[in-house]
Target: Nitrite reductase
Amino acid sequence: MTDGAQPTTRPGRTPREVATHCPYCALQCGMTLREEETGAVTVLPRQFPTNRGGLCQKGWTAAELLDHPERLTTPLLRDPASGELRPASWDAALNRIVTGLRAVQAGPGPDAVAVFGGGGLTNEKAYALGKFARTALRTRYIDYNGRFCMSSAAAAGMRAFGVDRGLPFPLADLGSADTLLLVGANPAETMPPLVRWLTEQRQRGGKLIVVDPRLTATARQADLHLQPLPGTDLAVANALLHIALTEGWVDRDYVAARTTGFEAVRRSVAAWWPARAEALSGVPVADLEETARALGTADRVIILTARGAEQHAKGVDTVTAFVNLALALGLPGRPGSGYGCLTGQGNGQGGREHGQKADQLPGYRRIDDPAAREHVAGVWGVPAEELPGPGVPAYRLLDSLGTPDGPKALLVFGSNPVVSAPRAARIERRLRDLDLLVVADFLLSETAALADVVLPTAQWAEEDGTMTNLEGRVLRRRALREPPPGVRTDLAILADLAQRLAAKPEFPTDPYLVFDELRRASAGGPADYAGVSWERIDAADGVWWPCPTDDGPDTPRLFADRFATPDGLARFHPVEHRPAAEEVCADYPLHFTTGRVLAQYQSGTQTRRVAALRRAAPDAFVELHPDLAERLGVADGEPVRVVSRRGELRAPARLSTAIRPDTVFAPFHWGGTARANSVTNDAVDPVSGMPEFKICAVRVERVDEP
Ligand SMILES: Nc1nc2c(c(=O)[nH]1)N[C@H]1C(S)=C(S)[C@@H](COP(=O)(O)OP(=O)(O)OC[C@H]3O[C@@H](n4cnc5c(=O)[nH]c(N)nc54)[C@H](O)[C@@H]3O)O[C@H]1N2
Ligand SMILES: Nc1nc2c(c(=O)[nH]1)N[C@H]1C(S)=C(S)[C@@H](COP(=O)(O)OP(=O)(O)OC[C@H]3O[C@@H](n4cnc5c(=O)[nH]c(N)nc54)[C@H](O)[C@@H]3O)O[C@H]1N2
Ligand code: SF4
Ligand SMILES: [Mo]
Model:
C-alpha cells in the first residue's frame, strides 16, 4: 500500500466532466467540473435545488488550486540538523510518524497522542479519522474545528429537540417565509447564492429582519436591521418573547401539546421588559416591538442563527433563547416555519455526525453509551471495552498539547489552528512544544509549516465521497481526475498508518466501501444513514437523514409530528443574559468582533493562493466607525494596532459608518501580524466548548511609522 490510492469508478462518474459540488462552504453549491483537452480544469454552474445555478467567486475559482505551483506533491520531513522541512519518501515519512507515535505512547499510554480533524472532510474521511483514533491509536483525544463553528447551535438543538440538524427543513422554505429573522448571519458574503432565496422571500411580500452589530451586505437588504452591541442577542431574544407573551402571540395549544418546561421560561422572560433589553443592547424598544409583531402575527415564520449569535461563551444559551422564542410561537414542525442554524463548513453537518467529535461515535451516537459502544465496536470488529471514553473539546485539547499531562503528538487533518484558533499565539506555542506534529494538507498552511512531518493529500476534485450540506442532505462529491503523482488521499494515508500500527480493524481506501461501513455503523443512531447509498443519492438530488432503510423514505422535514426526545416533546430551558467573558474597561475600551469577507475562506490557506480572490480581498483590515477614527486620529487606510490582553494585530483601518462606534471588526482569514486571533479571547461556552470569537475588549492605536 505504498503507492497512491486509486480513485474509484463508480456510478455517476463520467470521464472528463463530472457533476459535483463546491469544495468550500456548507451551501455545497452544485457545479460541473470539466477537464479541457489542455488538462486545465474549468468550473461550470449547475442547477441544484439549493444554489439554482448560482456560485460565488470562491466557487468559480476553486479549480485554480488543483495545479497550483505551491501544491504539495511530496511528503516533507523536518531535518534535525537544519530545522528545515525537506522532501522525503512516503516510506520515510510514515516510518517517522509511527516511530514518533510509539515513542510518545511508550510510557504514558495511548492518550499521549491526539487527533484534530475538520468539517471540510468528507463523511468517509471524518468516519475513518474517528475510527483510526479510537482503534489504531486507541486515544480518547480526538476533536475537530467544528467545535469552533457549530457546537453551540448543535448543543442547543440537542437539548431542545433531541437532535442536531442545522436546518430541519429544506433551504427553499426561506423563499416562502412571511417573516425571516437572521441573527448573526451574513449570507450575502458567506453564502452568496442563498441571497436568491431572500430576494424571492421579499418579492413575495415577506419581511426580512437582520440582527448584526454591522450594517452588512445582508442587513442592507433587510426591511429592519437591529444593530445590537455584540454579545447581547440573548437579552434581545428574551425581550422578544416577553413582548409575544404580553401581546398574546404565544401559541398556547402548541406549547401544551408539543413541549415541556414553558412555565419556567415564561417566569424568567417576565423580567425582560423591552426597555431593559434596549439598555443592554442598544436596540430601540420600537424595533423590538416591530420584530416581535412580525414574528408573532405572521403565518410562515423562520428564525435562523449563525456564528454572530453562537460564537460566544454563552452561545448555547443564546441559541436556546431563540429556540424558546420559536417554540413559544409554535414554529418548529409547522409547515414553512421553524428554527434553524446556518451550518458553515462544507461538511460541517456530516463532520459532526460520524465520530470526529470527542464525545461521539458514528451516527451521532454518544461514546459513553454502552449500547452505542457495543454496536460500533461490532462494526469495527474490536471489543467494546477497548474503545476509549470521551475526550475533551477542541480548545481544551489544543491548549493541553505538550504540557506535562497533555498529549505529546498531534495529527491534523483539515484544519489550520495557527490562524483559526482563539488566542492563537498561545496555541502556536503549544504546537511547538509537541514531540511530534503531523499535518496532512495539500498546501503548506501556517500549521503545516510548524510540523515535523507534512503529508501531501488529494484535493476535492481528485477523490469521491459524500458531504452533508446545511439542510442535512447527503450529496455526492465526484472525482474528475486522479491525484498528481506522489499525492495520496487521506483515506490511503490512514489505511497505511493503521497497517503500520498493526490496528485490528480493516481500513478500506475505497470511499465507496468506507461509506458502506459508515452506513452500518450509523444504523439505529440519531443520524441514521443506513438507507443512504451513493446510488440513491445519484438517483435524486441527494438523500436527507435520517434515512434508516433502503426502500423507506428519507426526511427533508423533521419534527412534523414529534421531536427526537424520548417522549417526543420539545424542551424549553430558561436562560439568562450574562455579560461577555471580558468586559470593556479604561485600558481596553472597545468591543472587538470578528468574521468573514466574501472572497476569503476561513484560515485562508486555500483562498489566499487564488489570484482573483487575492485581488478582491488582498489584506486584512480593521473596520471602525469614522467618529471613533476621528477620536483616535486615524484616517482611512492608515495602519492601526488592535490590542487586547492577549496580543495584537496590525492592519489598515477601514472607515465605515456601517459599524457601531463602540465596536471594531476584523476578518480572521490572515496569519502573521494581521492575525485576528492574536487578539481574541479563549473563554469558552461551558456546555459546547465554543470559544468567544465574537467579543472581547480591545484598544485601537495608530501605528506611527517612521
Ligand atoms: N466568504 C466566506 N464564506 C464562508 C466562510 C468563510 O470563511 N468565508 N466560512 C464558512 C463557515 S465555516 C461559516 S461558520 C460560515 C459563517 O457564516 P456567518 O455566521 O454568516 O459569518 P461571520 O462573518 O462569522 O458572522 C456573521 C455576522 O455576525 C456578526 N456579529 C458579530 N458579533 C455579533 C453578535 O454578538 N451578535 C450578532 N447578532 N451578530 C454578530 C458579524 O458582524 C457578521 O456580520 O460561513 C461559511 N461561508
Ligand atoms: N476570530 C475568529 N476565528 C475563527 C472564526 C471566527 O469567526 N472568528 N470562525 C471559526 C470557524 S466557524 C471555523 S469553521 C474555523 C475554521 O478554521 P480552520 O479549521 O483553520 O479551517 P480551514 O481554514 O478551512 O482549514 C482547513 C485546512 O485543511 C486543508 N484541507 C482542506 N480540505 C482538506 C482535506 O480534505 N484533507 C486534508 N487533509 N486537508 C484539507 C486546507 O488546505 C486548510 O489548510 O475557524 C474558526 N476561527
Ligand atoms: S456559496 Fe459556498 S458552496 Fe457556494 S460557491 Fe460559494 S463557497 Fe462554494
Ligand atoms: Mo465555521
